[in-house]
């Protein structure tokens, strides 16, 4: 198994932001990385410093204007003569029929909600989050061997996370859609990619990007999105369109689902993947399904993450795990250790 990270993932530090009529302290903070990096160290696992792959794979998924906004938006925001605040955050949402004249208009066009502010060093972390994920994809693309090796299971720290990021919109703490970027990149060599998402929230960005395609399966286990973020997607009836019909499969869980129920939905998702028979599996892993997480609407235990890892590994396909959500900092180390132990456990 290989694990990838980069020191720049900790630079993004969002400030308190206004949402749902009140101020919120950010949950997606650099201290998450501090705790998660303790897990591989405790298990004696090496963490590889990610190398730069470049902008090409990002622009294969995201619109150029949107990426330019992420890259330069903070500087443009701060250059405005009026004091707009210390981070790019819009209260105006006009994604369509918006020429993007001025940074306020660009923010209105490219920020889908108020939970993805851009602060001084955000772009550096956003970029390196995608590069870190791309290192795992590159390892598979450059692996010519047929035998089992350390590219069969790979794990990437993905901060800031990505599954809510749409083709041209940030939201839900997400900016670049790392799962979609590496799935598209892997299509250079592999015919079929499956993305399984077990984060507490539905990944509407992944769904949108591949909704009309049959070469990338997206299946998601998440909390019922009625009055729960992202609020407008993640329903069972969303099955894809055109060639993609049937290749988008959602399993919304009733709020309050216990661990047994969670795994019943995960097993259904796994059955869908087995039917699809992909060449590579990308797992969007969210620790926000943990029972004490502030975002949790289900009750997964620490031991449950070991079971989840065992189920992913048992699919016997090349596996790339992206560590995304999870905001109960006190247990991130323990929960990731449990997951890693399930990945490295030898078959009896």
Automatic annotation (TrEMBL):
InterPro entries membership: HDACs, His_deacetylse_dom, His_deacetylse_dom_sf, Ureohydrolase_dom_sf
Keyword terms: Hydrolase, Metal-binding, Zinc
Histone deacetylase domain ranges (all copies): 32-342
Needed co-factor(s): Zn(2+)
Keyword Metal-binding (UniProt): yes
A Pfam family reported for this protein in Swiss-Prot or TrEMBL: Hist_deacetyl
Residue ranges that the Swiss-Prot or TrEMBL entry lists as coiled coil: none
Family: Belongs to the histone deacetylase family.
Protein name per UniProt: Histone deacetylase family protein
Species this protein is from: Psychrobacter saeujeotis
């Amino acid at each position: 198994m290989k694990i990838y990270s980069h020191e720049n993932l900790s630079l993004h530090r969002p400030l308190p932001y206004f949402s749902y009529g009140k101020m919120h302290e950010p949950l997606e903070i650099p201290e998450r990385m501090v705790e998660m990096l303790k897990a591989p160290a405790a298990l004696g696992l090496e963490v590889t410093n990610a190398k730069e792959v470049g902008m090409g794979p990002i622009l294969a998924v995201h619109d150029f204007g949107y990426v330019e906004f992420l890259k330069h938006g903070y500087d443009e925001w701060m250059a405005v003569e009026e004091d707009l605040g210390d981070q790019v955050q819009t209260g105006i949402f006009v994604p369509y029929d918006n020429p993007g004249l001025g940074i306020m208009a660009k923010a209105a066009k490219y920020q889908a909600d108020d939970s993805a502010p851009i602060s001084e060093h955000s772009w550096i972390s956003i970029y390196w989050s995608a590069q870190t994920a791309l290192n795992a994809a590159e390892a598979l693309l450059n692996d010519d061997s047929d035998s089992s090796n350390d590219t069969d299971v790979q794990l990437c720290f993905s901060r800031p996370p990505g599954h809510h990021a749409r083709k041209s919109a940030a939201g839900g703490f997400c900016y670049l859609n790392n799962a979609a970027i590496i799935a598209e990149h892997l299509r250079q060599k592999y015919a079929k990619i499956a993305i399984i998402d077990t984060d507490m929230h539905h990944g509407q960005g992944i769904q949108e990007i591949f909704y009309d395609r049959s070469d990338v399966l997206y299946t998601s286990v998440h909390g019922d999105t009625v009055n729960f973020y992202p609020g407008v997607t993640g329903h069972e009836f969303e099955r894809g369109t055109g060639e993609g019909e049937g290749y988008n499969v959602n399993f919304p869980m009733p709020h309050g689902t216990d661990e047994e129920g969670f795994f019943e939905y995960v097993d259904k998702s796994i059955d869908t993947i087995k039917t699809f028979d992909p060449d590579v599996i990308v797992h969007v892993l969210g620790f926000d399904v943990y029972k004490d997480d502030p975002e949790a609407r289900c009750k997964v235990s620490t031991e449950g993450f070991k079971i989840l890892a065992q189920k992913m590994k048992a699919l016997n396909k090349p596996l790339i795990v992206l560590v995304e959500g999870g905001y109960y900092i006190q247990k991130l180390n323990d929960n990731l250790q449990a997951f890693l132990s399930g990945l490295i456990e030898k078959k009896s």
